[in-house]
Amino acid sequence: MTREMEALYAELFEAAGLGRRIGEKIAATEGQTQARWQTMWIIHEGAALTVPQIARRLGVSRQNEQRVVNDLVDDGLAELVDNPDHRSSPLARLTTDGERALLGINRAAKRSNQAIAADLTDAKVAQLRRLLAAFTTSARAQHPDV
Question: Are 131 and 81 in contact (CB under 8 A)?
Fold first, then answer.
């Protein structure tokens, strides 16, 4: 089982690296980076969130996420608004330009995903997703501190 786990991790690392490179290419279609795309996605998908909440959801440091959000704000793609629950931690939301950029990136991602999925059946994709979810659940149970 040890060799198979090592091979699994090697595949996961390769897939993650390829996914990041593809993500950078897709985000670049709208002049963005993958980090900015991920942040815009989280802001768009969730209720209004603070920078620390966004950072936790993405698994990155608050400082790094603050830099990404500040860049989005500087470029007019996001804005920080008053947070009625916490005066010193404003809520981030996308502007109309940010929504438009995110829509463009997501359209490019959909085309990419469809092209990749053309080589796989829906059943194979679902099986892979279930297996990855089971792997993640097991890994979290063994390492609850991360």
Answer: no
DSSP 8-state secondary structure symbol assigned to residue 89: S
For residues 133 and 137, what is the distance between their CA atoms, to the nearest angstrom?
6
CATH of the domain at 130: 1.10.10.10
| pLDDT band at residue 30 under the 50/70/90 scheme | very high
Q: Kindly report the backbone phi and psi dihedral angles of residue 46, in degrees, each rounded to the nearest multiple of 5, phi listed first.
A: -95, 170
| 39 class by beta-carbon count within 10 Å (0-12 exposed, 13-18 middle, 19+ buried) | buried
Task: Calculate ∠ Cα 73-103-114, nearest 5°.
Answer: 140
How far apart (Å, rounded) are the C-alpha atoms in residues 144 and 8? 21
CA 10/CA 5 separation, integer angstroms: 9
Residue found by looking up tokens 């959909």 in the block: 110
Q: What is the mean pLDDT of residues 72-76?
A: 98
Please count the structural domains in the chain.
Answer: 1
Is the four-CA dihedral 33, 38, 44, 49 of positive or negative sign?
A: negative
Domain range holding 125? 2-142
Q: pTM of this prediction?
A: 0.84
